[in-house]
Amino acid sequence: MLERRVVVVVYSGAQALDITGPIEVFDTVNRLLQESAYRIEFVSVDAPLVRTGSGVMIEAAPLDAGQGAIDTLLVPGGWGLKDALADPALISWIGRAAARSRRVASVCGGSFLLAEAGLLDGRRATTHWAYSEEMACRYPAVTVDPEPIFIWDGRFVTSAGVSTGIDMALALVEADHGAALALEVARFLVLFLKRHGGQSQFSAVLDAQLADHAPIRAAQEWILDNLQDPLPVAEIAQRANMSLRNFARVFRREVGTTPGQYVEQTRIARARELLETTDLTASQVARRCGFAAPETFFRCFGRALGLTPNEYRHRFQVVSPSGLVVQPDQADRSSA
């Protein structure tokens, strides 16, 4: 079997789990296959002993030891990211190493290091939801999406934060060795589930997009409270006491998307919540979220997530300790 070289860039103050999570996935592959499918190396500007943010010490070789062809270059985030971003030698090395890597992966704030090296320009990427706005402002050439737990764009894979590095590593294993082995690794590591990259990293992400402008914020809150209704933009503008043209202009400026797009995004977010936490049928979820017809719901949901509602439920439905699907209210249960 081909041995794949994984080079992990570590630095003082890096997040330990950003590093150990993915490499435990690769090491588990080696142990299950009883051969060296992945050879893991650590390199650092702070070699030979690197102290992570939590105090865990990692033994690493100097950056020069990372010469030659690389299968997977892995870059973590962490509390030491600010100093790492200010280190031109590290940024330059990451850029050069990426050029001789088959694929490049980052965990959490590691995407900042890739962006600083210019590797994500013109690409779609993610990072921890708490830092997505900062990343978008700092690197305008990068399309930052704060929703998914990981994004694969070409040979670059960026993951959201901390534990999502494990999900990303499982996806890399699946790409290398197939879904069956990836699921076996997930079971061996006693992971609750193997999450799809399209899953939201923060279920209330739309709440963070409430506008500062009071009329627009009031309109957003009214949308959230009335998703089951048709919600034509003209009616939403009336709720904000604004003309349709002015409302559309100000809404886009404040929220970053059109009112119609925001309504659809909010409907999808609510649908995901219902699919995860109730046993309502897909058609019932569609009605609860204001989609005019189930077919419209299926089309919009697939376009947004790349999964059907039933596929999403199968992957992400939340089950209580008693083994029962969590219900938001008794009314939902009676209508199912």
Question: What's a quick, concise take on this entry?
Answer:
This protein is of the alpha/beta class and about 325 residues long. About 45% of the residues lie in helices and about 15% in strands. It has helices at about 15-35, 80-85, 90-100, 110-115, 130-140, 165-175, 180-190, 215-225, 235-240, 245-255, 260-275, 280-290, 295-305, 310-315, 330-335, and strands at about 5-10, 40-45, 50, 55-60, 60, 70-75, 100-105, 125, 145, 150-155, 155-160.
3D architecture notes:
With 336 residues, this protein is of the alpha/beta class. The protein has 15 helices and eleven strands. The protein has helices spanning 16-33, 81-85, 88-99, 110-116, 132-138, 164-177, 179-188, 214-225, 233-239, 244-255, 259-277, 282-288, 294-305, 309-316, 330-335; strands at 4-10, 38-44, 49-51, 57-59, 61-62, 70-75, 101-107, 124-125, 143-144, 150-153, 156-159. A hairpin with a 5-residue loop joins strand 3 (49-51) and strand 4 (57-59).
Write the layout of secondary structure elements.
Elements (H helix, E strand, L loop, with lengths): L3 E7 L5 H18 L4 E7 L4 E3 L5 E3 L1 E2 L7 E6 L5 H5 L2 H12 L1 E7 L2 H7 L7 E2 L6 H7 L4 E2 L5 E4 L2 E4 L4 H14 L1 H10 L25 H12 L7 H7 L4 H12 L3 H19 L4 H7 L5 H12 L3 H8 L13 H6 L1
Parallel strand pairs: 1-2, 1-6, 2-5, 6-7, 7-11, 8-9
Antiparallel strand pairs: 3-4, 10-11
Helix pairs in contact: 1-6, 1-7, 6-7
